[in-house]
Every structure is written in structure tokens, then in C-alpha cells.
Amino acid sequence: MSRLARPTNDRVIGGVCAALARRFGTSATTMRVIFLLSCLLPGPQFLLYIALWILLPSEDKAQPAW
Q1: What residues form the membrane-spanning segments (predicted)?
Q2: Considering the chain, what is the average pLDDT of its residues?
Q3: Alpha carbon 37 to chain centroid distance?
Q4: Cβ atoms within 10 A of the Cβ of 47, count?
Q5: pLDDT, tens digit, for every residue of 25-53?
Q6: Which end of the chain has fewer CB atoms < 10 Å from its terminal CB, N or C?
Q7: What angle do CA 26, 32, 14 make, to 5 degrees?
């Protein structure tokens, strides 16, 4: 299982959508569209994105899972 980390490439803002796309096996563009569509619904999507941006390590700083 791959570790959830924000990639150093394919970032648009923070790399959160790219990290989630890699984890769930979809394209980053698809994940970004899903996120943008979810923002049309009521809920804390934007706050969740910011929280993941802060909590997810960057790929270059992530420790390898031995």
C-alpha cells in the first residue's frame, strides 16, 4: 500500500488532489473536478482541503515506510 504524501510534481495548489488521486488510482484531473463539484454542495470541503494540505507530508520530506 502506498503512503499518502503530496507529490513534488503534478501540483496545482498544494498537491492534495494529486495525492488523493494517486492513492485511489485515478487521474489528478478527475480528482480536481470531483473536488470542484463537491464545493457546490454544502459542507467543509475547503477546510478539509486546507487541513490535508497542512497534515499530509510532502513527498520529498516523507519518510519511507520500511
Answers
A1: 33-56
A2: 86
A3: 15
A4: 9
A5: 999 999 999 999 999 999 999 999 999 99
A6: C
A7: 105
Domain ranges of the chain: 12-55
Contact 44, 58 (CB under 8 A): no
Closest alpha carbon to 10 in 32, 38, 25:
32
The C-alpha cell at 6 is 503530496
Question: One-letter amino acid identity for 17?
Answer: C
pTM (2 d.p.): 0.78
Tell me the one-letter amino acid at 44: P
Is pLDDT at 13 greater than 90 in this prediction? Answer: no
Among candidate residues 23, 27, 1, the one with its CA nearest the CA of residue 12: 27
Give the integer Cα–Cα distance in Å for 36 and 32: 6
Reported as type and span, the H/E element at residue 48 is: helix 45-55
